[in-house]
TrEMBL record:
Keyword vocabulary terms for this entry: Aminoacyl-tRNA synthetase, ATP-binding, Cytoplasm, Ligase, Nucleotide-binding, Protein biosynthesis
Organism: Sediminicola luteus
Subcellular location: Cytoplasm
Name of the molecule in the record: Glycine--tRNA ligase
Phylogenetic placement of the source organism: Bacteria, Pseudomonadati, Bacteroidota, Flavobacteriia, Flavobacteriales
Family assignment from sequence similarity: Belongs to the class-II aminoacyl-tRNA synthetase family.
Domain of life: Bacteria
GO molecular function, one term: ATP binding
Protein residues bound to substrate: 101, 218, 265-269, 372-376
Length: 514
């Protein structure tokens, strides 16, 4: 656990040092769980968003994108269920005076048991070597099977208690498991209570006439209320999807783990409208499709897993999370939900307007069912950044810190470095930059020895360093250094653009999932 905390501290520190993420309003001591993205963070975030949009919208003939407003009519949130049911179960420790999400305390307890399973796996892998079969070991080892049964039993009971709103049993479960406050180490807990997460605000110039509004807690409802607008103007035929990215706001009482859980965050969501009765088939299809998208970034299948929900939301008939192995363990990265026809039917009821689709093949009208894919952009940012940050021991015994971001997402694609700041080398370097910047985000770096500049660009996640030296003036060649391997090769200046394009082209990355 200590090692995981150390790794996570390095992630947070590195993100600030290299201009990726800053504490919001830091000069005023900041706001808890609110962050600003710096010059590199904004670029990485934009590239992730573009990578998602390209895969979800541009590469699908039957999916379009919208950009709905943050402010929505307040009845929207009554219809969606957020006014009555958008709650977190909270519990206070009487000694530390700290507040926690009760379900997260239980899930963290299960994560510790998972840690024991991982230790058993590592010991067995070391003992059996190449002959080790991980899947067989997980299924047959008595100690591991017992640990897994404990986890399954705990989560099943938690899910049932939350579904039945039996908060007394949630507290009883915490007490039975002997869960202690991480701050005080005490088991002196209050009762569990529900807390609504929506931020309230007002619309209007005077207090007398102002309308009570909410900052949207999700982006999905903007899609649902625009269902007919998009379907009719786009002449969309079932099945089809509507996607959007945008800010959402939740009054998280227990916000933590850097940008993993924030009060102001960004979502990337797609609602896929299907015929009633076909939703389970599409649900499985989108689970597979979305996992392939994640795997296309090259972080390895071992860092992802599906987690089926024990407790289903009031609108769902199936739900699963794609979980990612963050420095603090496996946590939700993306949700895939079969939402039935709850949303459109509810908006029909509360608005008095028909939200139905006439199916010419069936010659009938119906309220479509919906399969949702929803991913937090900030969580995706953290997943990529934390997994990319590595410390490597080199052959000469030294170490380097390198941010191995997928080249397609890297904020800066190349740094152009004149070997020295004289003899016309800076002029040629600037000429190369002027040519490349039409296609790529590139920077100029002339400060410090070239070896130190390489290390700086490694830590910044830049895939290529292009070094201009005296030979460049003679034969129009440069040295290209590859971040991940540190290999160097001599290439013609005219060939540089094509080399970078091949490495960072979205087409080359996304074709892996076709």
């Amino acid at each position: 656990m200590a090692k995981q905390e150390d790794i996570f501290k390095k992630v947070v520190a590195h993100a600030k040092e290299y201009g990726y993420v800053f504490q919001s309003s830091e000069i005023y001591d900041g706001l808890s769980a609110v962050y600003d993205y710096g010059q590199n963070g904004a670029e990485l975030k934009k590239n992730i968003r573009d990578y998602w949009w390209k895969a979800m919208v541009q590469l699908h003939e039957n999916i379009v994108g919208i950009d709905a407003a943050i402010f929505m009519h307040p009845t929207t949130w009554k219809a969606s269920g957020h006014v009555d049911a958008f709650n977190d179960p909270l519990i206070d420790n009487k000694d530390s005076k700290k507040r926690y999400r009760a379900d997260v305390l239980v899930e963290d307890h299960c994560a510790k048991i998972e840690g024991k399973i991982e230790k058993e796996v590592k010991k067995a892998a070391k003992r059996f070597g190449d002959a080790f079969d991980k899947d067989q070991f997980l299924a047959t080892n008595p100690r591991v099977v017992k640990y897994q049964e404990q986890i399954d039993g705990i989560l099943k009971r938690l899910g049932k208690s939350l579904e039945n709103e039996d908060l007394a049993d949630v507290k009883a479960l915490i007490e039975e498991l002997g869960i202690v406050c991480p701050i005080s180490g005490s088991k002196n807990w209050t009762d569990v209570k529900q807390f609504n997460l929506m931020f309230g605000t007002k619309l209007g110039a005077s207090a007398d006439s102002a309308m009570d509004l909410y900052l949207r807690p999700e982006t999905a409802q903007g899609i649902f209320v625009n269902f007919l607008n998009v379907q009719k103007t786009g002449r969309m035929k079932i099945p089809f999807g509507i996607a959007q990215t945008g800010k959402a706001f939740r009054n998280e009482i227990v916000a933590r783990q850097f940008v993993f859980r924030m009060r102001e965050f960004e979502q990337m969501e797609m609602q896929f409208f299907v015929r009633p009765g076909s939703q389970k088939e599409w649900y499985e299809k989108w689970k597979e499709t979305r996992l392939k998208w994640h795997l296309s970034l090259g972080f390895g299948a071992d860092n992802y897993r599906f987690h089926d929900h024990e407790k289903l939301a009031h609108y769902a008939d199936a739900a699963a999370d794609i979980e990612f192995k963050f420095p603090f363990g496996f946590k939700e990265l993306e949700g895939i939900h079969s939402r039935t026809d709850f949303d459109l039917s509810s908006h029909e009821k509360f608005s008095g307007k028909k939200l139905q689709y006439f199916d010419p093949e069936l010659n009938e009208s119906y309220v479509p069912y919906v399969v949702e894919t929803s991913i937090g952009l900030d969580r995706m940012f953290l997943a990529i950044f934390s997994k990319a940050l590595q410390e490597e021991e080199l052959e000469n015994g030294s170490t380097r810190t390198v941010l191995k971001l997928p080249a397609v997402l890297a904020p800066t694609k190349a740094a152009v470095l004149p070997l020295v700041k004289k003899d016309g080398l800076p002029d040629l370097a600037h000429k190369i930059i002027e040519d490349l910047r039409w296609d790529f985000n590139v920077i100029y770096d002339e400060k410090d020895a070239v070896g130190r500049r390489y290390r700086r660009q490694d830590a910044n996640g830049t895939p290529f360093c292009i070094t201009v030296d005296h030979q460049s003036l003679e034969d129009n060649t440069v040295t290209i250094r590859h971040r991940d391997t540190m290999a160097q090769e001599r290439v013609a200046i005219d060939a540089v653009r094509a080399m970078i394009k091949e490495a960072v082209d979205i087409r080359n990355w996304l074709q892996k999932i076709q």
